[in-house]
Amino acid sequence: MPELPEVETVKRGLAPTLEGANIVSVDQNRADLRFPFPSGFANRLSGTSVTSLSRRSKYLLADINNGDVLIMHLGMSGSFRVENDVSATTPGQFTHERGKDPKHDHVVFHLMSRDQHSARIIYNDPRRFGFMDLVPRAQLGEHPYFKELGLEPLGNDLSGESLARLFRDRKTPLKAALLNQKLIAGLGNIYVCEALWRSGLSPMRAAGTLVTKSGRPTKNANELASHIRQTLHDAIDAGGSSLRDHAQTDGTLGYFQHSFAVYGREGDACRKDGCGGTVERTVQSNRSTFLCAKCQS
């Protein structure tokens, strides 16, 4: 499953073509992906235009000029290709070939871009775990996908103060609290492991230990919030972590995975200067956790 930086990277790759474009027509090549498409999906989008493209957690949101929002989720293997009348091939080089077999091209958006060039955005998904939906913008906040989502970890919403408010009196392990989508939306296993290592915090410690008795954030809470944001921004700048089957919209893979400090590095020396510890792997809630027990406490 792609994590938040991957989805943000895809959003930024789609925006130049999709934002402000007229949707001339839509080819819907099957009745369902993970879930059935909404009734009249292709017809409801044809003849409309896209006013903006945004992201909420791991969902892509395209606002349509008729008041609907096109919700798109990549699932495990979903990807987009952008083709236009300047280039008929997908730019960029794939390290791992994917997303080019036309039998998995499930949705094709035929567009007229804001600079009056014809373009196609093609959704390819071999495993079909992704999905799309159409929801009125006015009802989006109460939609089952969104109504219980927590705060966004990018930007100023995530702070030591917000962590203190969310974690006060919580005895659950810190990593589990960070992965709770009702508290913080979009954080995934990879980046939580990396941010906790940067912060020097054990994933097993109680979340409530980041809060003082008076409910104020500790120094650890402030530093953790900063490290989460910076870890995500570093990954976005590198194009996402790009595990085997993830590619950016333009076909290139990001390389943040080469900078992982702990994730997937069991048995390797800790990269923190002067630590001398070894990266360990344990299991929390059926997920692999990577840490250096020597410098994370």
Could you describe the 3D structure shown?
The protein is α+β, with helices and mostly antiparallel strands. It is built from six helices and ten strands; from the N terminus they run αβαβββββββααααββ. The chain has helices spanning 4-18, 41-45, 160-167, 174-179, 189-199, 219-237, and strands at 22-28, 50-56, 59-64, 68-73, 79-84, 105-112, 118-124, 131-136, 279-284, 287-292. The strands form three sheets. The chain has a four-stranded antiparallel beta sheet with strand order 1-6-7-5. A four-stranded antiparallel beta sheet has the order 2-3-4-8, covered by helices on one side. Strands 9-10 form a two-stranded antiparallel sheet. α1 (4-18) crosses α6 (219-237), α3 (160-167) crosses α6 and α5 (189-199) crosses α6 (219-237). The protein is elongated, with a radius of gyration of 21 Å. It starts with a helix and ends in a 5-residue tail after the last strand.
Summarize the structure.
With 297 residues, the chain is an alpha+beta fold.
Query: If you average the pLDDT, what whole number results?
Result: 91
What is the overall silhouette?
elongated
What's the SSE pattern? HEHEEEEEEEHHHHEE
Main pleated sheet: 4 strands, antiparallel
The overall strand count is: 10
Spatial strand arrangement across the major sheet? 1-6-7-5
Summarize the amount of helix as a percent range: 10-25%
Uncertain segments: 88-98
The computed structural class is alpha+beta
Strand content: 15-25%
Q: Whole-Å distance between the termini?
A: 29 Å
Q: Tally the helices: what do you get?
A: 6
Backbone CA Rg = 21 Å
